[in-house]
Amino acid sequence: MADDQELKGTTGYLFEAGMLKRAKRSGWWIAGVKDPETIAEHSFRTGVVGAVLAMMEGADPAKVALLCLFHDTQETRVGDIPHIGRRYVTAASNEDVTADQVSAAHPTVAAGIRAVVEEYENGESLEVVVAHDADKLECLIQAVEYREQGYQNVQPWIDSSLARLKTESARQLAEAALGMSSLEWQKVYLG
């Protein structure tokens, strides 16, 4: 049974995670996107993409979705540092930020979240590879959507995401995304 401080520490982490619903993915501003997706929106679809990729690759979909869900939670503390910004900024590791975030949480919750982030950052399992591919594939899909909205400066995000994909399923889905409209899925239902 958790004591009052552990319950408050765990609940505090949940409130902090809610900040991701308001925090924008800042790299898109470089491409000129005026109102980019939030970190939570990115993490949600990354989890869905990860589960789908896991099914295609023979990995554990639940584990991949969990890895994807927690992969950017540290950004409540350090923000979403765009790729180019990382050349100039030294930030704490995601593992260290996570340890601080959950330091007051229930011990089993803290240990569980730390283990998920540690695995995402340092693991080599198929699930980790798929989770990283999900992150890149989601970025590519988002860039395709922004390009359709008229933001032409997103091509570097498409190119770099495509180049970093490791699994065959992710590469195939990326190629499919690049060859279709983001609303093409409606044709099946609308005729």
UniProtKB/TrEMBL annotation:
Pfam families: HD_3. It catalyses: a 2'-deoxyribonucleoside 5'-phosphate + H2O = a 2'-deoxyribonucleoside + phosphate. Keywords: Hydrolase, Metal-binding. Residues 35-149 form the HD/PDEase domain. Its EC number is 3.1.3.89. Gene3D superfamilies: Hypothetical protein af1432. It comes from the Bacteria. Its cofactor is Co(2+); Mn(2+). The keyword Cytoplasm does not apply. Homodimer. PANTHER family: 5'-DEOXYNUCLEOTIDASE HDDC2 (PTHR11845). This is 5'-deoxynucleotidase.
